[in-house]
Amino acid sequence: MTKLNVTRRTAMTILGSASMIAISNAASTQAASSLQDFGSQLQTLPEVTVYSAQRVITMEDNDPAINTVAVVGDRILAAGSRDELVDRIGSQPFRLDDRFSEKVIIAGLIDQHVHPFLAGLTLTSEIISIEDWNIPTGFSEAAKDGEDYRSRLEAAEAAMDDPDALLLTWGYHHFFHGEIRRTQLDEISRIRPIIIVHRSAHELILNTPALEMLGVTQEYVDGFDGLAREQSGFEDGYFYEAGMFAVLPAVAPVLSTPERLGAGLRLAREYMHRAGVTVAAEPGGVLSRPLQEATNAVFSGPDAPLRAYFIADGKSLAAMHFQSGSMIEETEKLLDWGEGKTAFMPKQVKLFADGAVYSLAMQVSEPYVGGDFHGEWIMQPDEFNPVFDAYWDAGYQIHVHQTGDLAVDLILDAVERNMRRMPRADHRTTLVHFGYAREDQAKRIAELGCIVSGNPYYVTALSDRYSELGLGPERADDIVPLGPIKANGTPISFHSDVPMAPGEPLFLVWAGVNRTTVSGRVAGPEHRLSVEDALRAVTIDAAQSLRLEDEIGSIAPGKLANFTILEEDPFEVEAEKIKDIGIWGTVLEGDIYPVSDDFDLDRASLSPPRDTINPPTKPLYALADVSGIAQKGMLAGCSCCASPVAQSCTTSAAGQVSAVSCCGTNALGWAVVSEWASKV
Predict the structure, then answer these.
(1) Which residues, 6+ apart, have CB-to-CB distance to 16 below 8 Å?
(2) Which of 162, 406, 528, 649 has the fewest CB atoms nearer than 10 Å to its CB?
(3) Contacts 24+ apart (CB under 8 A), 579-586
(4) Are 89 and 260 spatial neighbours (Cβ–Cβ below 8 Å)?
């Protein structure tokens, strides 16, 4: 992509040209013949709003002298110094707005990859996680080790007034907190139902009261087939991967009440707004029209402070429609699912390569160390390749979930094969997450025209632990290896994958600039980005990764007036303090949305109370007809199937050692959504 360099002088020239074009369009057929006529015509043009600030960071040339931006309606007219802009505007109606005079205006921040539904589901629970979470409902400090985790869980249980109320908690990770099963949860309470949703959202752990409340018995679990039975443990109250998916119809009624779904989506929206996000995209979300309509209800209205885009889940679409030849047609049908401020991205799709970095299910060329870990393919290569080729032929930009270097090879081989048989300019195939790659792959990524969307938080959260377990010191320090990517000129965007990382773009900038781990050391200093490059990763380069760079991502004439209003200048604060910069609010397409502290969540209302006097005559899972939709989800590749297109499964080696995320986030989503959809 050619970078547009707009200096103050050229901005004034563009402004003058824009004014002349507007004048010629607005004027009568008789041209102005005098300066007096010229001035009167200027006064017929729309009013310009001129915002002043300490600094305006355009993400174009980033001239520190720029302190003003002029807006007409929902579009940017120009940016420059205040005196120059006012002088150039002349007689055209304008008003000065100084509300940001003590703030810093930056191009609206973009989170390239989010999961608002899953974020709402997890963040409305009791958060006891491996990292701090500062969300609108309060601050949750990280639980650093097993002892800390257990004491936090005990305190959360003791703080609940109703002894029969469900304690639903998210954030536990066995790599950090040790093994917790039914026995340990029963020690905390033999009365209160307790359900742990694993940090990855791919394991569930239940105590005895929870199993009893949901009607999960040994007989029920014995009815599971194949891999689901292998990955379920009734005695331990432990269900992972296919086992978790099989038990979800029983758990979904308490996870996915309409109250929890609605409150969770509102929480996710408020969380992203407070982080300064103006545009977010969800790639590969759960394919559910009812869920999309619920999301639209929260994110599409005129009061929504951000615009949300969605990218189709090609894995599930392939599972259901590839063999019939209707996959592309069915993908196109999703374009009418959005409304208002929500929309599906045309000609963009998400595929999946290997397993999750959090579970050490990455496909890596060198063996794992320090444990019995195995890489997993989410889409087997013989399944991935024909689906990739079909979307390539249809002209799609293909975003691919990738975490290990063998998955990079798979993607690059697919791109090269297709470039040789059907060359495409500017295809922008996107490597998503970029957990680990070899240095020799960086040049090939650039030569083939691919781009990278990385999650720099992996370094902070995992480099220390994975140096001891899984990758070893050298590879652990090379997680998200952006140094060679930047050196080869490949565009880099950042994303949070919230709730897989805190959904805060400035936090991601901090992580990419510093690469500081939880122990305080720097992992892979050669991969650190400059402040400017890291800011580009959440502005103009993030827009480029979504093919939106002509509309958003920088402050330039004609683009949408999307700004994030900062309390401090990220170029001026110390690098380690970037994540602490306050957010005043946002401007979305010319409308101003200040951050508010007015957000309340009544957790007691999110789950149905346990009726001990008149318990249901059937277990909760039997009260909703969800098996058909849940089965569709399983056949869509959400149960670690080796070949989901062929609807046949094989035992997962990764699953046997509790690798917790070989299937992305859809397994939890399918069953929860199916339960919710049955109630609307």
Answers:
(1) 88
(2) 162
(3) 579/504, 579/506, 579/507, 579/509, 579/510, 579/511, 581/506, 583/274, 583/275, 583/276, 583/506, 584/100, 584/103, 585/273, 585/305, 586/108, 586/273, 586/276, 586/277, 586/278, 586/305, 586/306, 586/562
(4) no
pLDDT in tens, 21-56: 343 444 444 444 555 566 666 678 999 999 999 999
In this prediction, residue 33 carries a pLDDT of 53
Q: For the residues 562-572, what does the mean pLDDT come to?
A: 98
| φ, ψ for residue 9, nearest 5 deg | -65, -45
For residue 145, list its beta bridge partners: none
* Least confident stretch, 15-19, 164-168, 192-196, 657-661: 657-661
| CA 160 – CA 137 distance, rounded (Å) | 17
- 410 has a pLDDT exceeding 90: yes
Report the C-alpha gap between 417 and 660 in whole angstroms. 32
Which 8-state DSSP code applies to residue 263? H
| pLDDT at residue 262 in the model | 86
Tally of CB atoms within 10 A around 346: 13
Q: Average pLDDT, whole number, for the chain?
A: 85
Rounded to 5 degrees, φ, ψ at 426 are 55, 50
Dihedrals phi, psi of 16, to nearest 5 degrees: -65, -45
Sign of the alpha-carbon dihedral angle for 35, 40, 44, 47: positive
Alpha helix segments (H runs only) across 327-404: 327-333, 381-393
Calpha distance 556→541 (Å, rounded): 14
Distance from C-alpha of 86 to C-alpha of 39, rounded to nearest angstrom: 15
Strands (E), 516-662: 563-566, 583-588, 591-594
The whole-angstrom separation of Cα 39 and Cα 93 is 11
Residue 474 is predicted with a pLDDT of 96
Could you give the 3-state DSSP secondary structure of residue 400?
A: strand
pLDDT at 75 over 50: yes
What phi, psi does 582 have (nearest 5°)?
A: -75, 150
CB-based contacts of 241, cutoff 8 Å, min separation 6: 202, 203, 227, 231, 639, 640, 652, 655, 659, 660, 662, 663, 667
